[in-house]
Amino acid sequence: MPRFYCPAPLQTGLALSLPSGAARHVQVLRMQPGDVITLFNGEGGEFEATVTRMGRSDVDVEVGMHHPVEREAPCQVHFLAGITANERMDWLVEKATELGAVSITPVMAERSVLKLKGERADKKLAHWQGVAVAAAEQCGRNRVTRIDNACTLAQWLAQHPVSAGSGVRLVLSLSEGTRPLAEAVQGQMNVTLLSGPEGGLSPAEEALALSAGFVPVTLGPRVLRAETAPLAVLAALALR
Predict the structure, then answer these.
(1) CB within 8 A of 27, min separation 6: which ones?
(2) Is 41 exposed, middle or buried, given 0-12, 13-18 or 19+ CB atoms closer than 10 A?
(3) b/e string for 166-202 if b means 16 or more Cβ within 10 A?
(4) What number is the average pLDDT over the span 24-30?
(5) Closest residue by Cα to residue 11 from 83, 80, 64, 71
(6) Which of 134, 155, 204, 226 has the fewest C-beta atoms lying within 10 Å of its C-beta?
(7) Could you tell me the CA-to-CA distances from 162 to 85, 144, 169, 210, 212 in Å, in that order?
(8) What are the tens digits of pLDDT across the range 52-93?
(9) CA distance 97 to 235
(10) What is the C-alpha separation between 207 and 211, in angstroms, rounded?
């Protein structure tokens, strides 16, 4: 059954018009009145909905039964992603959403090729949020990964001091003194994961992370790409 994100209050019996993106998708699928789709708004569970009218550019539905199903990963992961090149960042956002990341903060690292500010930053963040929405629709999640405003690591740390109950902070590192991932998490259910762009974090950035309580972790002897390593962590945490 096709699934669509509908960021609006939903309740059984409600009649509404689908958001423009979902309406276009329904039209591309050549659905007809009487066909049933699934809607979710990110607030929990999903709703059946029946198409009642197909317009030229709009689609009306009637909201049906609510199903309180959730498909979230057991571990809440907040992902600080060093911004990679355009296509790689899109792919990273898509796959991180599929693997259950709760939020993604694009980090403007010293070695990030893509630099964001002003209107360009706004457009990129909106684009990445759209990628996350599409990934949630496809994979069955009823919660959409939140894309936070892009910032430097120093800016993020200033806004998020270490506090009791905030879980464990991990940074992917190739330096000596790293710990295996399984040893570092040890049953933690709330993880903040920091990963660098192509070329990794700079020595200054890594030192800043360590001073703020991040634990350096390794995934083994192989050097993984910037878009591969954090996904390996997310997959491992999702399958615990």
Answers:
(1) 54, 59
(2) middle
(3) ebbbbbbbeeeebeebeebbeeeeebbbbbbbbebbe
(4) 94
(5) 64
(6) 204
(7) 30, 26, 9, 12, 7
(8) 999 988 999 999 999 999 999 999 999 999 999 878 999 999
(9) 11
(10) 6
